Every structure is written in C-alpha cells, then in structure tokens.
Amino acid sequence: MKTYYIILITMLFMSGVCYSDLKPLEKSQENFIKYRLCPLPKESSLFNEYYNLKSNETINVSTPTSLTDAQKTKLVDTLKLYFGLKINLVNSVDESNSQLGEEGYTISINADGIKIAGNGFVAVRQALKTVRQMSEV
Q: pTM score, two decimals?
C-alpha cells in the first residue's frame, strides 16, 4: 500500500489566518518553501510533524458555491493521479472564500486532516498541486 507523508503546514496564498499550536521548525528549514513551492505563499508556517495521507482519507474543500459533480470527479481523479490513492472529497459552501481572490486558496494540514478553502474549482485544483509539491520531499 502506498502512503505519503506530507509536512504539516498551514498556508496562506491570498488572505486569511494561519494558526497552529505545534512547534515551528527552525529558520533554515523554511527554505523548503522557497525551493519546493510554486507559487510562493504570501504566508506560511511549517511544523516539525508529518501527516500520513492514506487511501480512503477525506479532504475537506470549501468554496463560495458548490462544485459540480464533474468538478468533484476531476479533483478526485487528480488526487488518484498524484498519489495513486483513492481519496474522498467533501465539498462545503463558504461564501467568505470569494474574498480569497480569483485563484486564491488556503491549505491547512494538521492531525485532523487536510482542509482546503478556495475561491472555486481552479483555486482548489491549484491547492491540490501545492499539496503534491509538499509531499515530494
């Protein structure tokens, strides 16, 4: 069975708040962001912990309006392509995500799982690309 370990990270790409009660990594380890993530986040916090992404996990996604079934299927297929795992996607509506900017998103990864807030389908797809970049350590 394939498993991926993703560095716990809370990222801010357009706007919002980053928070966590975990201990931040040393300054030198923050170079991870500079050399691994594109585009560079406006704000980020790395922590000395890992998240184990396994098959049948759920990623929670919130968008200003509901994603269509076709969009949800595309995102699940993208996750399978990236990780070779069947990942469940739960979409909720949060109108405040429209303030993130046209392709803005935030990613929060902690012991509770992966949460993505995006301003629509394109933003969520970009966020998934970032999650993939974080897993390629």
A: 0.71
DSSP state of 16: -
Distances (CA, A) of 81 to 35, 47, 58, 74: 23, 27, 16, 10
The packing angle between helices 121-135 and 69-83, to 10°, is 10
Residue among 88, 87, 7, 91 at smallest CA distance from 48:
7
97 secondary structure, DSSP code? G
Residue 102 burial (10 A CB sphere; 0-12, 13-18, 19+): exposed
What is the model's pLDDT at position 11? 46
Contacts of 122 (CB under 8 A, 6+ apart): 103
- Say what the pLDDT of residue 117 is: 94
Q: Six-digit token pair at 96?
A: 């405040």
The percent of residues above 90 in pLDDT, for the chain, comes to 27
3-state secondary structure at position 82: helix
